[in-house]
Each structure stands twice: as structure tokens, then as C-alpha cells.
Design a protein that fits this description.
The structure holds two protein chains of two kinds. Chain A is mostly helical. Helices cover 75% and strands 0% of the residues of chain A. Chain A has two domains: 43 residues, no CATH class; 126 residues, no CATH class. The chains are: A mainly alpha, B mainly alpha.
């Protein structure tokens, strides 16, 4: 389908934009241009007839999860602003919780659960190493926490780590008495952090800052 | 119809959004999400990334709804935010690597085979275009943006928007209405630069 009138002129005519009246007359007089114009109108009509698309069910769930996470972060930020010494206290608590979990690991559990004794302390240590690997470069550059350049895959992993952390908190508050569960959570935490390190490794620093 | 101009959001829902009412948020999502998803899908041609756009747009809407001064501006605001998120992803290096075209099957309208075929034809034809051209066509022809607005949005000139529209239409006229083989055999597919 070709006509001697350029497509841009036909489109301008179709959309009622200001065009030279002589051009409009020329389009109307030329049968090929009229056919072409009709096709352009049909395409516009077809595009406007395209229906909306329902997103997958989990999209709303993800939105809900992100909103709750953001609310929690906002609350934490407010708390930290009011009590600046809280960072130190939190770090000390986490450290003691990790140490106590290693010290309190009961080898007798092995017989019950069938799990080896060594991995928990290894997992806690590995988790700490990976965490510093993920966050140390950001801290070194003194990037404020709110401005970290995480892409969506990294964010998804961070959300999952936050979920594991809250489950671990329940554990240390005595609400998850099963030691097998404790090890599963630490293992999951290590795996997620390893994925995060891997994602971070694949990104060039300049690329990471450019994202979003 | 997948355009924002056809939508209406009840004023009660808008007020609920501003108050942070959970039910209003869910209603707004049900009403607006298919439009956001439809637009993002047609521009980005990737279901997963389009869903990310939907997520980001609604998280922003819900978190910032209390700052909206004019309740009637919600639809325009959502559209603007969604368009910006699409643009952000088009420019992301991750998106530029992606080449496969995924069409979403719509369960409705399957009784009317002609309409379905028409829709698939235009969807497929649209999918063969470069990403920025798709965006120009969608914003101009469906969302009613002017060339000047599109030029500003893309950081280009008004003429750039006009030329992209013309280029896109040259391909669409060639492909739309042609058989599927025409589309698949056309060299334009391989020249796609999304």
C-alpha cells in the first residue's frame, strides 16, 4: 500500500492537525492516498479497541507485602531517629543472639533430628560474612540507606531475607522451639544472601547506579 | 478498551484512597490495574516487567494518595506515573537485552474469532516495532498525548515523535491485516531493537 503523499502528512490529516488545505485536497483527490488513509484509521481504531489486561493475582499480594515492608521501614527509621543509640544496641543484640545460638546448640538434638551439629555455627558465620560482603561496599561509599541502588531482583531477595529475619526473631523470642526449623531458617538466609552476592557480582558498579 | 480516558473512579474511592482506606485501595486497583497492565504490556512486550510497572505504580499511588490535592486528578496522575515507570524500564539495560515477544492470552471475546484474530494481528504487528516507536504510537494514538508532550517525555523534539509515529505506521500498515506468515517472514522482526 503506497501513495505519493508521505505517511506523516496522512497521519497529520487523519488526526486533524493543522495541514495545508492544498495537501488535504490532494489527499482527497488521490484514490491511493484515500485507501492508505483508511488503513491508518483502521489501525488506530484497532489499537483503541485492545482490551485491558488483568495482572496475575500475586501482583496485588506483592503490592500489599511491599506496602507493609515500607511501613515497617518507616517505623524503624522513625525509631532510629528518636533513639540514635539503637543501632548499636541492635548490633549487640544480634551479635549476642548469634553467639548464644552457637553456645546453646545442643548436640543431643542430632539424635532426634538427624542433623549434623557443625552446620549451624557455620551457617551463622557464613551469613555474617555474606552480609558484610553485600553491605560493606555501600557503607564504604557512605551511600545513605534510602538511596541504595537495588534493582528489582535484589529488592525481591532483600524482602525474602527480611521475612527470614522476622521468623528468626520469633525463634529467639521463643515462639519457634524446633531446632530443625532454626537451622532451616539460617540455611535459607545464607542461600538468599549468596544469591544477592551473585546478582551484585554480575552487575558492573556503573550499571547498578544507573538502574532505576 | 485499554485507555485511561474510558475510566472513571468513584469519588468515594478517591477519598478513601486519600484516607488510606484498605477497601478503597483494593477497588482502585481492580479498576485501574488492567489499564496500567494493558498499556505496560503493549509498550514493554514483557508480562513480568509489565507486572513490575503495575506494582510500582500502585505502591506509589497508595503511599502518596494523601498528598493529592485534586481528587479528580487521580486518573491522570496514575497514567503519568505508569508511563514514567514504563519509560524507566525501556531505558534500563536489563530491558534492552530482552528480545522475546510474549503475547498474553485473553480469555474473553474468544467466541468472536474474527475480533480475536484482529487483535492478535495488531498485537503482533505492534510487537515487531522498536520499543520507543511502540511507546510513541501508544501514547499518541491511544492515550491522546500530543507530539510535543511525547517529545518532552522522551527528552526529544516534537519532530522526533512525529517521525517515530510515521515510521511505526509504515510498518503497521505493512503488517496489520497480513497473514501471520507475513509477520514472521518479515525482516522487520529481526530488526527489532527493544
Amino acid at each position: 500500500m503506497t501513495s505519493k503523499i508521505p505517511v506523516s502528512d496522512l497521519l497529520a490529516h487523519r488526526d486533524g492537525e493543522h495541514v495545508d488545505p492544498r495537501l488535504s485536497a490532494e489527499i482527497e483527490a488521490d484514490s491511493e492516498s484515500r485507501v492508505h488513509l483508511k488503513a491508518l484509521r483502521e489501525i488506530k481504531h484497532a489499537l483503541n479497541e485492545l482490551p485491558g489486561i488483568e495482572p496475575a493475582d500475586e501482583v496485588w499480594q506483592n503490592i500489599d507485602q511491599r506496602l507493609r515492608l515500607n511501613e515497617n521501614l518507616e517505623r524503624q527509621r522513625g525509631f532510629k531517629q528518636r533513639y540514635p543509640w539503637a543501632n548499636l544496641a541492635t548490633a549487640a543484640t544480634v551479635f549476642f543472639a548469634a553467639v548464644l545460638s552457637i553456645l546453646w546448640w545442643n548436640p543431643g538434638d542430632e539424635g532426634v533430628t538427624g542433623l549434623p551439629t557443625a552446620p549451624l555455627s557455620d551457617l551463622v558465620l557464613r551469613s555474617q560474612q555474606l552480609e558484610s560482603q553485600v553491605f560493606y561496599p555501600q557503607a564504604k561509599r557512605r551511600v545513605p540507606a534510602g538511596q541504595l541502588a537495588w534493582n528489582s531482583s535484589q529488592q525481591a531477595l532483600l524482602y525474602r531475607i527480611a521475612d527470614v529475619d522476622s521468623e528468626l526473631n520469633w525463634y529467639y523470642e521463643g515462639q519457634l522451639p524446633d531446632p530443625q526449623e532454626r537451622e532451616r531458617l539460617w540455611r535459607q538466609r545464607v542461600e538468599l544472601l549468596e544469591s544477592l552476592v551473585e546478582v551484585q557480582r554480575r552487575q558492573k558498579p556503573s550499571l547498578r547506579m544507573a538502574l532505576y | 478498551m485499554a485507555k485511561f480516558a474510558d475510566l472513571q473512579l468513584d469519588s468515594g474511592v478517591t477519598r478513601g484512597l486519600q484516607r488510606g482506606d484498605r477497601r478503597a485501595q483494593a477497588t482502585a486497583y481492580r479498576t485501574l490495574a488492567p489499564m496500567v497492565m494493558g498499556m505496560a504490556m503493549r509498550i514493554l512486550q514483557d508480562e513480568g516487567i509489565a507486572q513490575e510497572v503495575v506494582q510500582d505504580t500502585f505502591v506509589e499511588l497508595i503511599e502518596k494518595a494523601h498528598t493529592l490535592k485534586d481528587p479528580h486528578a487521580v486518573l491522570g496522575w496514575v497514567r503519568k506515573v505508569a508511563v514514567n515507570h514504563c519509560l524507566m524500564r525501556l531505558r534500563s539495560p536489563w530491558h534492552k537485552r530482552r528480545v522475546t515477544l510474549e503475547l498474553v492470552d485473553d480469555a474473553d471475546d474468544t467466541n468472536d474469532s474474527t475480533r480475536l484474530e484482529d487483535r492478535q494481528d495488531i498485537e503482533r504487528a505492534l510487537g515487531t516495532l522498536p520499543a520507543e516507536t511502540r511507546m510513541v504510537i501508544w501514547l499518541h494514538d491511544v492515550e491522546g498525548y500530543t507530539h510535543k508532550e511525547i517529545g518532552t517525555l522522551l527528552g526529544r523534539t516534537t519532530s522526533y515523535s512525529k517521525s517515530q509515529l510515521a515510521r511505526g505506521y509504515q510498518t503497521l500498515t505493512l503488517l496489520y491485516g497480513g497473514s501471520r506468515d507475513d509477520i514472521e517472514d518479515s525482516g522487520i522482526r529481526s530488526a527489532r531493537t527493544s
